[in-house]
Design a protein that fits this description.
Structural class: alpha+beta
Largest sheet: 3 strands, antiparallel
Bound molecules: zinc ion
Pfam family, one: HTH_Tnp_IS1
Mean pLDDT: 87
Low-confidence stretches: none
Distance between the termini: 37 Å
Organism: Emticicia aquatilis
Protein name: Insertion element IS1 protein InsA helix-turn-helix domain-containing protein
Oligomer: single chain
Number of domains: 2
Number of strands: 3
InterPro entries: InsA_HTH_dom, IS1_transposase_InsA
Strand content: 15-25%
């Protein structure tokens, strides 16, 4: 039996279980037992990937503009501005 070591993309916990299939992409969704959030392993759209959001924040702190971030990370400009508008998660 093949095992994959998955970590929660939100809290990096290893207590994840299979949850359901994503309604649009049909990909396996996983549920984190630690923080209760769901995630997909290997996002279809880069904009949904939490690591991209973290990169957007980090690049903006280092002086990159919206258009720079759009070009480097290959996400839509709207994704970049939506990330800034969202409230920080606690
Ligand atoms: Zn988690």
């Amino acid at each position: 039996m093949a095992t994959i070591n998955l970590m929660c993309v939100h809290c990096e916990s290893e207590k994840v279980v299979k949850c359901s299939l994503h309604p649009d992409t049909g990909k396996q969704r996983y549920l984190c037992k630690e923080c209760g959030r769901r995630f997909v392993n290997g996002y279809t759209w880069r904009a949904n990937d939490p690591t991209i959001k973290a990169l957007i924040i980090s690049m903006s702190h280092n002086g990159s503009g919206t258009r720079d971030i759009e070009r480097v990370l290959k996400v839509a400009r709207q994704t970049v501005s939506n990330t800034f508008k969202k409230k920080p998660q606690k």
